[in-house]
Structures are given as C-alpha cells and as structure tokens.
Design a protein that fits this description.
Blueprint: H1 3-8, H2 24-46, H3 50-73, H4 83-100, H5 110-131, H6 136-161, H7 164-184, H8 194-218, H9 226-247, H10 250-260, H11 265-277, H12 279-298, H13 306-331, H14 336-355, H15 359-380, H16 382-391
Helix pairs in contact: 2-3, 2-4, 2-8, 2-12, 3-5, 3-7, 4-5, 5-6, 6-7, 8-9, 8-10, 8-12, 9-12, 9-15, 10-11, 10-13, 11-13, 12-13, 13-14, 13-15, 14-15
Length: 399
Amino acid sequence: MSTTAQNRSPRLSAVLREGEQVTSLELFFDLVFVLALTQCTALMAAHASWEGVLKGLLVLGVLWWSWVGYAWLTSVVNPEEGAVRLVMFMAMAALLVAALCVPGAFAGQALLFACAYAVVRAAHIALFVLASRDDTALRQSVLGLAISTAIAAGLLVAAAFAPSAWRLAIWGLALLLDMGGPFLFGAEGWKLMPAHFADRHGAIIIIALGESIVAIGAGTSAGIDAGVVAAAVLGMVVAAAFWWLYFDIVAIVAERRLIKASAGRERNEIARDSYSYLHLPMVAGIALVAVGLKKTLAHVGDPLGLVAAAAMLGGAALYLLAHVAFRWRNIHKLNRQRLLCAAVLLAMLLVEVELKPPSLATLALLAALLAALIAYEALHFAELRDRIRHQLVRGELPS
C-alpha cells in the first residue's frame, strides 16, 4: 500500500482525529446554527404565548440534536479532508433550509422543514457509516442511532400531514425518540476526543450568548433613549454573567473530568449526559432570556407580561438549574447557591404577576441577582477558584 493511501484511509475510519483543535469548517458549520437559533428566538418572540414558546423550544431541541450529531462525528473524523468536506457542505445547506423554515415549521413549511432535517441527519449517518467501516462497536452504535433518527424524521414528516392539534404532540414524541436513541442503544461503541468535544460545546454557548446580544439590537427598532440605553447595558450584564457562570470555572472542571474519564463507556456517557443532553437546557435558557430582552428593549416602561417574564426569569433559572445538574453529573456535588438563585428567580414570577413592574425593573433585578451570585462565588470560593484556574495541571480535578 502506498504512503498516500496509508495517510488517507484513517481519515474516514473510526480512529480519533489527529488533533484536538476545532477546525475552521466546524466553526463555519456553527454559523448556520446561529441562524437556526435566531429563528427559534424570533418564533417565540413573535408569538408570545405558551404555545409559541413551546413551539420554539421544540424546534430548538430538534435542531440542537442535529448539531450534536455533527459534534460527535467531527470528534472522530477530520471534516476538512476528502469527501467529508463536501458532505458537510451539503448538510450545511440542508440545515440552512431547515432554519429558514422555522417560522412555518408547524404550518406551511412543515413538510419542507422535515425533509431538510432528514437530509441533515442522513448525511450525518452516512458519514458515520464510512467512519465506522473498520470498527464493529462503532458500527453497531451508528446503526442504533440510524434507527432512532429514521423514526424521528418519519414522525416529523407525518406531523406535516397531521391535524394542527396533533402536531405539537408528534413533535414532542419525535424529539424524545431522537434524543433517547443513544441512551437506549448504549454508549460503548462511540469515539471522541475529549478536549475537542468540550471546546465544541463551549463554542456553542458563545453562539447562544451572541444571540442574546443580537436580541438587544433587534429590540431597539423603536429608537434609542435613556431607558433603551439602560436596558442595553443591563442586558450586557446578564450576558456577561452567563458567560462568567459557565467559562470561569464550570467549563474548566468539566473538560478535565471528561479528559480524566476512562476511554469508552465511562467517557462516552459523561459526554452524552453532560454535553449532548445538559447543554440543551443551557442553550434553551439563553434563548428564552433573549426573548425577554427583545420585549424589554421594545417597551422598557411597560410590564413584560406573564409569558415574556416567564421566558426571561424562567430562562435564567433553567440555565442555572442546568449548571446544577451539570456539576452533579461531573463531580457529584450540589451547587446550592445556584440552586437557590434559580428558586429566587422563579419566585420573582409571582412578584411579576402581582405588581407588574416595568420590564426595565425586571431586567435590573435579574442582572443584580446574577451579579450577586457571581460575587458570592468569587469571594467564598476564592482559593479553590485560583487553584482550578491557575495551579491545577490539565486533567487534574479539584478535591
């Protein structure tokens, strides 16, 4: 066999990619997900009702799972080599079409969305089949995933023809079966590079936070005055707090835990639970807060209303609760201060219902509460924080 052939064959086999660094094509792929996330937020903001929020979250869940699939895939193969690059471009085009169809995903564009989503997932499965040709365990895992993917895609197509009253239920079932596939079929056969995998999910948190910044700009269409400036600054405080809460300590400890885990079932289950599953409520929480930010910037002096307030305060609570679950899954310790903060945010909804304060006041309370949480953690855990950030070597976990 020639040297060239030897160098090429592993790129489409089940061996781990040569480097941990996220490639430019992966970042390019993520840009399409930016539009998908923006469309989901716009859908919820345009239909500020419980049904509208549920629709937006269901679409976000479906699109999230398609992104997750490619995060696992590109932790096995190099996406920039050979035919993989071309298939990735095809998947990006299909994902773009699906994102464009989000506003009508439960109406006139339901069938087109389902078909575009099926193409995204079919390309993913096809590349994984190629990648697993020399690895029986990976091939079995891929075949199990192909079954759940086909069922979910078929249900989305069926939902396009179902009566409107049934569509939400069918979508919910499709998402449950799609995301449940890797849990039901086991985690033994999958492959991943831990640092790369963690970086990919960190990047998607940044993208979601970018959507909250976009929401601030989108909400200023009525003009800029003192109230809008104050709301924009407070919105930036909230976005920065979300960044701090994830990247200051949480992302570092989680990545080290993933690296330290034994390759195979243990590492794969941590990656599945901590990243593929628990990052969804984080991203959803950020998207919900973005809905509240849009409503606040549009009318800073008016009350948010129950649905928009629930989106902003409940979204922040969801983000924190996902962090609590994330920490428990990784080091089996309960983050009591974040749990308490989430409870306070949910209790604030009662105040919102009773007093109906201006949306700017609600946003200010949210920013103040998150800032207080960060200040408490930074002071109370100062020594541990310094050890984690500056003294522990890569792969070591805090005691």
